[in-house]
Design brief:
4-stranded antiparallel sheet, alpha+beta, 7-stranded antiparallel sheet, Immunoglobulin-like, 2 domains
């Protein structure tokens, strides 16, 4: 088990008479991820509406008046990873997929899998289906796309990334998801924080990774390769970035870059160790 201390500060200046915010910044509560303690504070203190959906996304809705607004969330989170031998994991035929997994076969806003089928079949169609084929997709994306901070924007899709070959974590994730779906492999996005990233890439930030459905479970892949996967706590889960933005803002609002901290907590006596690299397949769902 791994334990992480996570915090985020969001700072805004509402320029109109009011502004509205939909946030997904709180750590998800799933069978494999539990929140030991947490605290949410808004300055000025105002009411928030809360809703948790079927994917464990904890959504906050805020309506604020003109002026500065600060949102601070901090939590201690335990992750009880499932670690499997990837060689044993198989792709599930469409006829055998659970109905709630089927939406992750379809194209979505940022993952135009219907336009990637010829490419996906040419590159990966001849490989044996299973975890190793998915891992090969992950490696192809990691090796053929260059990580360049602020090189893309909210309009960049998987097709753009396969052409431009540069991007940030969400672009790596969208491309891998699109290729998987083009091969009839269900795939989706998970939002996290980039624990273990090289400090040369900048301050800690939100991080997008991929989950692929294999042998009846969702398994985690980081196609950008910047993080330590066992240190990836779950915040949001969805088809792509359009489903799980950390902040959707309505109104005339100026915003500052989020301030994020992520620290591991070790307690060997309680069986809690530091996040480490592993060759095993990882599931946190």
């Amino acid at each position: 088990m791994n334990r992480l201390r996570y915090s985020v500060i969001l700072s805004y200046d509402i320029l109109d008479s009011t502004g509205d915010f939909l946030l997904i910044v709180e750590a998800a509560k799933t069978p494999r991820q539990s929140v030991v303690c947490e605290r949410l504070a808004l300055t000025p203190p105002i009411h928030t509406d809360r809703y948790t959906d079927s994917l464990c996304n904890r959504r906050l809705r805020i309506h604020a008046d003109k002026g500065p607004l600060s949102v601070r969330y901090e939590a201690v989170v335990d992750i009880d990873h499932r670690l499997d031998d990837g060689v044993s994991l198989t792709e599930v035929p469409v006829a055998g997929l659970p109905f709630d997994v089927l939406p992750y076969l379809a194209p979505s806003r940022y993952c135009e899998s219907d336009r990637m089928m010829e490419f996906a079949m040419r590159e990966f169609g001849g490989m044996r289906p299973g975890y190793m084929r998915v891992y090969a997709i992950r490696e192809w994306v990691r090796n053929h796309v260059r990580f360049v901070s602020r090189s893309t924007n909210e309009r960049t899709s998987a097709i753009d990334t396969i052409v431009e070959r540069t991007g940030v974590c969400r672009d790596f994730a969208h491309l891998m998801i699109g290729i998987c779906r083009a091969l009839s492999i269900p795939a989706r996005m998970s939002s996290s924080v980039d624990y273990g990233a090289d400090p040369a890439l900048g301050a800690p930030d939100f991080h997008a990774v991929v989950e692929v459905f294999l042998s009846g479970g969702w398994y985690l892949f980081d196609p950008s390769g910047v993080s330590i996967p066992t240190g990836l706590l779950r915040i949001g889960t969805g088809r792509d970035a359009a489903d799980i933005p950390f902040a959707a803002i309505f109104g005339k609002v100026a915003s500052e870059r989020p301030i994020i901290e992520i620290q591991p907590i070790s307690d060997p006596a309680a069986g809690i160790g530091l996040p480490l690299a592993t060759t095993c397949a990882i599931s946190t769902w």
